[in-house]
């Protein structure tokens, strides 16, 4: 099994705060890996470094054999690494369908020279719309395809974001708290979907989560972060039993 | 370059710079505390100029009186625009662009109201007449009391502002709002009151700047708009929120417009009609090469505590 | 007072057509892509100055006459040359206009896309707006100071529309109006089709959240440059028509007030809606004409009241009203971008 994502000793400092401190981790292809830790431990910052919206000051990040340490976010997306956000970061003034269609690659109609000539890209648009319909079905939003993203409920927004992230030919997804603020049943449904996608399409996942009860049922491996560092790594069972981790989380 | 030209442009640089600083500080204050790039700031300057003119024509030609009334007049106008327009719009959570448009609109209303009044009474291009004395007369240089009023008053006001910001409760509250507005509300700072007082202060500073400018040159309805470019350049040089940086920036702008321009004209025959390009070039260079302006370089200014805004 | 209704209507519709083109361009840039172009007047003026240059340098060339300095001593002869060329050889006059529109679009577009790259370096979003505003004013000052371009403060006359070859002024004006409206309709259709597409979807996304759009694989800087290119080219075309309609090129016409007029059109009509831009252009044009007529009438009655000042105050108040009570403008934006939505409605 090859390693899809390799992070070597990356660090990032913000003024006086060492947000990410010499972090290394590996995600093999086809695995679901969890990233946990208290608030402020640097997990989201690490995601920002991986997706390219922040620059690592030191270290190296490799994805699918490419060095992506200093690449721009759009380049990283094109390579197949896609990130979702804690707050859904949806396009609120666009419909659900438009949100989902945005990331699709190689759209003829995105070229301003071709855009006014509808006949050229109409067929392609209809095709990707069909495909998006099926995807929306899986995230239970098919009926709401015309709804404005701002009119969705919190849980629906999370699902839309997931759907949007999935529609860009991703090979690996970085999910940032995909179940935050979502009802328990829906939370499990989301993880079932993640597992199904791994099974059907061989997708790889690195997931930041606070809902450890749900997370631990689905992950192959877990990394624990605290104060910018990786302090533990292991299977869900190992981590659950780890005294140091319990102290970090519950102050035992 | 002959000494007389050097001295003359030096004096003008100091004069203009001090006044720019006064006007720019108001803008910096608005940016930091209220977070609004206020395009109507120019009109506050004009208001100050016209208050000065009217006072000098009807009430008194004593400079302190004129300046006080200009401060109050422009301050009140600023407060009214805040209460009538900016505060209600801010409550609607409009985008920055919408607020900028609103400030444009306010500026237009003020400017053309002034135009209407000025038209009625024929007050175009009038200087504010105050008793003038010649202080220094040498073959190379003539210095009048206008200079003596302009520069020291500006410096005094800047000092006073520094004191207010660093040593009073109000100042502390203003700085808190500038650094972290959400936190400030949470810890109980009377946001509305601080905003009101900030606008009064901003208007007052601009008004005094306008009044002094009217004494230095003339008063016309476009005077604020015409100096706005240089004032913005000064504020941008100050990184938008650095107090000391803005003051330094104001002198950089005025020296470039006067001394540098004079030199370019003398050495290379560059026509003075290119003078408006100077602040623009400064703005472009700063925004592209060093967006934070002069912040960080202003540590060495004596006597003025550096105050860093949220983006400084 | 004697108002020639037909002439007024023709003039009004001509101004409307020209304003519509400019409003469409700003709606594209700000309404759809979120770029605050506070320097619209600059790009319009590029069109006007191009017309000034082609009418004085290119037109003589096309009619086979020697170039005469349009300013200075040969001013009268150069003017005479232009006027007669347009009158005697309308075919050449049309060719000249066509070339002018093309050149202006290219130059305007290039400047626009170049300017968009300055947005990359600025610290705050709205700095770009400030740079554009300031830049617009200063270019204006520079052109006014640099005499050889369009004779500095004096401006350039004899830059008339090709139909002036017709001896009937009403017919001439009507024909030009038809031309302007045709171009405006083309511009509208083009803009509509442009944004009812995946490209339009990209713009809306960029408008709302640039970093996320970037993270979804779209090259935002290039996108912004493309929008500015199209918008500026349109504005320049509007500028050519504006100058040629006046018959006169002067820096005075392209001050900040011009930019503000166009912003009022877009904000009033409806941000993000092209039909809204047209509606806004119509309302503003009508208000402008109405105040101008009112002003002339009042002056004829002996009143000293300057209605122009009132016009600015009125526009400012309208702008504030819209911002306060109807932020989306008169015609709201259409949410569904492409035919994709129709596709899904067909399926179960």
Give structural notes.
The complex is a heterotrimer of chains A (252), B (312) and C (348). Chain A is α/β, with parallel strands linked by helices. Chain A has a single domain, classed as Rossmann fold (3-Layer(aba) Sandwich), CATH 3.40.50.300. Chain A has helices at 43-51, 73-79, 96-101, 118-138, 154-166, 184-201, 212-215, 236-241, 243-250, and strands spanning 3-14, 17-28, 32-36, 58-63, 66-67, 81-83, 172-176, 204-208, 221-226, 229-234. In chain A, a hairpin with a 2-residue loop joins strand 9 and strand 10. Chain B has one domain. With 312 residues, chain B is mainly alpha-helical. In chain B, strands 1-2 form a two-stranded antiparallel sheet. The longest helix of chain B is centred in the first third of the chain and has 32 residues, at 3-34. With 348 residues, chain C is mostly helical. Chain C has one domain (5-255). Chain C is 73% helix and 1% strand. Chain C is built from 14 helices and two strands. Chains in contact: A-C, B-C. Chains B and C meet through helix 3, helix 4 and helix 11 of B and helix 5, helix 11 and helix 13 of C.
Q: What characteristics describe this protein?
A:
heterotrimer, A: alpha/beta, Rossmann fold, six-stranded mixed beta sheet, four-stranded antiparallel beta sheet, 9 helices, C: 348 residues, 14 helices, 1% strand
List the helices and strands and how they pair.
The complex is a heterotrimer of chains A (252), B (312) and C (348).
Chain A: E1 3-14, E2 17-28, E3 32-36, H1 43-51, E4 58-63, E5 66-67, H2 73-79, E6 81-83, H3 96-101, H4 118-138, H5 154-166, E7 172-176, H6 184-201, E8 204-208, H7 212-215, E9 221-226, E10 229-234, H8 236-241, H9 243-250
Parallel strand pairs in A: 3-8, 3-9, 6-7, 7-8
Antiparallel strand pairs in A: 1-2, 1-4, 4-5, 9-10
Chain B: H1 3-34, H2 41-58, H3 63-91, H4 96-121, E1 134-137, E2 142-144, H5 145-167, H6 169-179, H7 181-186, H8 191-216, H9 223-237, H10 243-268, H11 277-289
Antiparallel strand pairs in B: 1-2
Chain C: H1 5-32, H2 40-62, H3 75-88, H4 90-116, H5 127-145, H6 147-150, E1 156-157, H7 169-195, H8 198-208, H9 210-215, H10 220-246, E2 248-249, H11 256-269, H12 274-300, H13 307-325, H14 340-346
Antiparallel strand pairs in C: 1-2
Helix pairs in contact in C: 1-7, 1-10, 1-11, 1-12, 2-3, 2-4, 2-5, 2-10, 3-4, 4-10, 11-12, 11-13, 12-13
């Amino acid at each position: 099994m090859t390693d899809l994502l390799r992070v070597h000793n990356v660090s990032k400092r913000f003024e006086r705060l060492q947000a990410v401190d010499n972090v290394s981790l590996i995600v093999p292809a086809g695995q679901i890996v969890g990233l946990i830790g208290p608030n402020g431990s640097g997990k989201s910052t690490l995601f920002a470094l991986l997706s390219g919206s922040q620059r690592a000051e030191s270290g190296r990040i490799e994805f699918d054999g490419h060095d992506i340490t200093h690449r721009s976010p759009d380049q990283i997306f094109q390579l197949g690494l896609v990130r979702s956000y804690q707050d859904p970061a949806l396009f609120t003034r666009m419909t659900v369908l438009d949100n989902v269609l945005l990331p699709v690659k190689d759209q003829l109609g995105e070229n301003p020279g071709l855009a006014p000539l509808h006949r050229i890209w109409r067929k392609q648009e209809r095709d990707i719309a069909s495909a998006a319909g099926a995807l929306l079905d899986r995230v239970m939003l098919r009926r709401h395809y015309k709804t404005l993203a701002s009119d969705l409920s919190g849980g629906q927004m999370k699902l839309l974001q997931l759907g949007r992230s999935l529609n860009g030919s991703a090979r690996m997804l970085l999910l940032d708290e995909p179940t935050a603020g979502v009802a328990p049943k829906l939370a499990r449904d989301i993880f079932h979907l993640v597992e199904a996608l791994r099974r059907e399409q061989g997708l790889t996942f690195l997931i930041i989560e606070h809902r450890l009860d749900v997370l631990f049922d689905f992950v192959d491996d877990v990394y624990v972060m605290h104060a910018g560092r990786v302090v533990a790594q292991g299977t869900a069972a190992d981590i659950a039993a780890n005294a140091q981790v319990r102290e970090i989380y519950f102050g035992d | 370059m002959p000494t007389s030209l050097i001295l003359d442009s030096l004096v003008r640089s100091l004069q203009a710079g001090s006044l720019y600083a006064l006007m720019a500080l108001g803008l910096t204050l608005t940016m930091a505390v209220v977070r609004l790039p206020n395009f109507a700031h120019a009109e506050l300057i004009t208001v100050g100029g016209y208050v000065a003119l009217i006072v000098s024509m009807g009430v008194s030609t004593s400079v302190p009186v004129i300046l006080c009334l200009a401060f109050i007049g422009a301050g009140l106008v600023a407060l009214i625009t805040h209460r009538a327009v900016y505060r209600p719009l801010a409550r609607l959570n409009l985008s920055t662009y919408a607020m900028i448009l609103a400030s444009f609109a306010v500026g237009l209303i003020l400017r053309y109201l002034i135009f209407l009044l000025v038209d009625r009474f024929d007050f175009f291009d009038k200087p504010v007449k105050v008793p003038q004395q010649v202080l220094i007369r040498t073959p190379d240089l003539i210095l009048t009391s206008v200079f003596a009023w302009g520069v020291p008053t500006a410096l005094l006001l800047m000092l006073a502002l520094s004191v207010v910001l660093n040593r009073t409760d109000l100042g502390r509250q203003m700085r808190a709002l500038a650094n972290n507005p959400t936190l400030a509300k949470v810890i109980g700072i009377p946001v509305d009151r601080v905003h009101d007082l900030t606008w009064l202060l901003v208007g007052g500073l601009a008004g005094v700047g306008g009044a002094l400018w009217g004494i230095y040159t003339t008063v016309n309805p476009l005077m604020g708009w015409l100096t706005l470019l240089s004032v913005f350049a000064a504020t941008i040089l100050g990184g938008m929120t650095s107090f000391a940086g803005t003051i330094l920036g104001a002198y950089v702008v005025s020296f470039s417009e006067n001394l540098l321009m004079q030199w370019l004209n003398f050495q290379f025959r560059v026509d003075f009609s290119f003078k408006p390009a100077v602040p623009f070039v400064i703005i472009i260079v700063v925004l592209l090469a060093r967006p934070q302006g002069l912040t960080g370089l202003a540590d060495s200014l004596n006597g003025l505590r550096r105050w860093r805004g949220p983006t400084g | 007072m004697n108002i020639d209704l037909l002439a007024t209507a023709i003039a009004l519709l001509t101004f409307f057509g020209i304003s519509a083109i400019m409003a469409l361009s700003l709606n594209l840039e700000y309404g759809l892509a979120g770029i605050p172009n506070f320097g619209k007047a600059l790009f319009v003026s590029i069109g006007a100055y191009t017309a000034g240059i082609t009418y004085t340098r290119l037109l003589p060339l096309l009619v086979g006459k020697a170039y005469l300095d349009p300013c200075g001593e040969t001013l009268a002869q150069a003017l005479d040359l232009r006027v007669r060329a347009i009158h005697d050889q309308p075919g050449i006059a049309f060719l000249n206009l066509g070339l002018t529109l093309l050149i202006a679009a290219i130059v305007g577009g290039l400047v626009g896309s170049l300017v968009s790259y300055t947005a990359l370096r600025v610290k705050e979003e709205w700095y770009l707006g400030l740079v554009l505003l300031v830049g617009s004013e200063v270019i204006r000052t520079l052109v006014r100071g640099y005499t050889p371009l369009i004779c500095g403060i004096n401006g350039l006359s004899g830059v008339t529309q090709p139909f002036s070859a017709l001896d009937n002024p009403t017919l001439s004006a009507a024909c030009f109006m038809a031309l302007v409206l045709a171009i405006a309709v083309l511009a509208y259709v083009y803009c509509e089709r442009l944004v009812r597409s995946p490209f339009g979807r990209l713009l809306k996304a960029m408008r709302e959240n640039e970093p996320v759009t970037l993270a979804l694989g779209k090259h935002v800087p290039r996108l912004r440059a493309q929008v500015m290119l199209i918008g500026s080219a349109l504005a320049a075309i509007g500028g050519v028509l504006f100058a040629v309609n006046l018959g006169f090129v002067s820096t005075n016409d392209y001050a900040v007030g011009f930019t503000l007029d166009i912003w009022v059109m877009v904000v009033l009509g409806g941000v993000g809606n092209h039909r809204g831009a047209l509606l806004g252009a119509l309302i503003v044009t009508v208000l402008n004409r109405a105040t101008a007529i009112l002003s002339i009438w009042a002056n004829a009655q002996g009143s000293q009241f300057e209605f122009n000042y009132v016009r600015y105050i009125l526009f400012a108040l309208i702008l504030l009203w819209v911002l306060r009570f109807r932020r989306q403008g008169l015609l709201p934006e259409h949410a569904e971008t492409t035919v994709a939505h129709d596709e899904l409605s067909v399926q179960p």
